[in-house]
Specification:
The chain has about 290 residues and is mainly beta. About 5% of the residues lie in helices and about 30% in strands.
Length: about 290
C-alpha cells in the first residue's frame, strides 16, 4: 500500500485544511469513468483537443512533479499485514472529526484505525466475506460511503458483488455501540443483475446535494456486447443518483426530481448519466461541487 499525503482546502479560500491520503492501488486495467467503447479506437478516428481549464494537470505533466515535488511513503507498517489483504481497494475518512480512516478489502472487510503512520491497532467495522463473490477478478466488496449523518446515526453503505444470481448489491449497515456493524442487520437498498463478472463499477459517494451517486459498469465481457452503456432503460453503464431512506424510514430510496428520466418513460429514473464502460472511482470537487 503506497500513499501520498497532500493538503487540500475545503470550500472557499480561508477554510480549514485537512490531510488526504491518495491510495494508489494496482488491481488490473480498471478504467475510471471510461465511456463505453471498444478496446481500440477506429483507425480513422480524429483526435479532439481537450480544453484545458485553470489548474488542469495532464498525465504527461506528472512525471517531473512526481520526481521532484511529491514524495511517496509506505504508511501504516505496523498494521498493514493484518488489517489489509492483497486487494485493498478504497480508503476514506470516517466522519466525525476523530481523525480515523476506513479501508475496504476486495474480499469483504472494512477496518478503521487512527490516521497516524505509526498506528499499532485497528478495529473491524464490517465483515461480509460470507456473502461477497470473488469469483471474478473485478468482483468483490468495491465501494463504501458514510451517510452524511453518520456521527449521529452510524449508517454507512457498501457496494459489493454477490452470486446466485450474479448481481451487484447496494446495502446499508449501522455501526453499533461497540464500533462494529452487525452483518445480520444488512438492509439491501438496490440490486442490479450482472450478465458477466467484469465491469462492475463500484464507486459510491454522497454528493454536495446529499444524494448518493453510484457507479455501475456496463455489465462486462468485451466491447459491451449487449449495448448497455447506450441504453438508459438499464441501470448498467450508468452513474445513478438516489436518496436512500434512513433506517427509520425503511429499506428503499427516493428519486430526485431533477434526474433526467424522472417522471418519464425514456429511461430508468435512477439514471443520472449514462454511456460509461466502468466507472470505478470518482470524486466531487470541493470548490465547485462538480463530479
Amino acid at each position: 500500500m503506497v500513499t501520498a499525503e497532500i493538503t487540500h482546502r475545503h470550500g472557499p479560500a480561508g477554510g480549514t485544511r485537512s490531510p488526504v491520503f491518495l491510495v494508489l492501488v494496482l488491481i488490473g486495467p480498471l478504467l475510471a469513468f471510461a465511456a463505453a467503447c471498444s478496446d481500440r479506437a477506429p483507425t480513422d478516428a480524429t483526435a479532439v483537443p481537450v480544453a484545458r481549464s485553470a489548474g488542469t494537470v495532464f498525465p504527461e505533466e506528472m512525471a517531473p512533479a512526481l520526481s521532484g515535488e511529491i514524495r511517496l511513503d509506505e504508511v501504516f507498517p505496523l498494521i498493514r499485514d493484518e488489517a489489509f489483504d492483497d486487494r485493498t481497494v478504497f480508503l476514506a475518512e470516517v466522519p466525525g472529526g476523530g481523525q480515523r480512516l476506513a479501508v475496504i478489502s476486495q474480499a469483504g472487510t472494512v477496518v478503521t484505525f487512527e490516521n497516524d503512520p505509526d498506528v499499532e491497532s485497528f478495529d473491524l467495522l464490517l465483515d461480509i466475506r460470507d456473502r461477497v463473490s470473488r469469483a471474478g477478478n473485478e468482483e468483490g466488496l468495491l465501494g463504501l460511503a458514510f451517510d452524511p449523518g453518520y456521527p449521529e446515526n452510524g449508517e454507512f453503505y457498501v457496494y459489493y458483488s454477490a452470486s446466485g444470481p450474479r448481481r451487484s448489491v447496494l446495502s446499508r449497515f449501522i455501526t453499533g455501540e461497540d464500533g462494529r456493524a452487525d452483518p445480520s442487520g444488512e438492509a439491501v437498498i438496490l440490486e442490479i443483475d450482472e450478465p458477466f463478472s467484469n465491469h462492475n463499477g463500484g464507486m459510491i459517494e454522497f454528493g454536495p446535494d446529499g444524494m448518493l451517486y453510484i457507479g455501475v459498469g456496463d455489465g462486462g465481457s468485451s466491447g459491451d456486447p449487449r449495448g448497455n452503456g447506450q441504453d438508459p432503460a438499464t441501470l448498467l453503464g450508468s452513474v445513478l443518483r438516489i436518496l436512500p431512506q434512513s433506517a427509520q424510514e425503511g429499506d428503499s430510496y427516493t428519486i430526485p426530481d431533477m434526474n433526467p428520466f424522472a417522471g418519464t418513460t425514456e429511461g430508468r429514473p435512477e439514471v443520472w448519466a449514462y454511456g460509461f464502460r466502468n466507472p470505478w472511482r470518482f470524486s466531487f470537487d470541493g470548490a465547485t461541487g462538480d463530479l
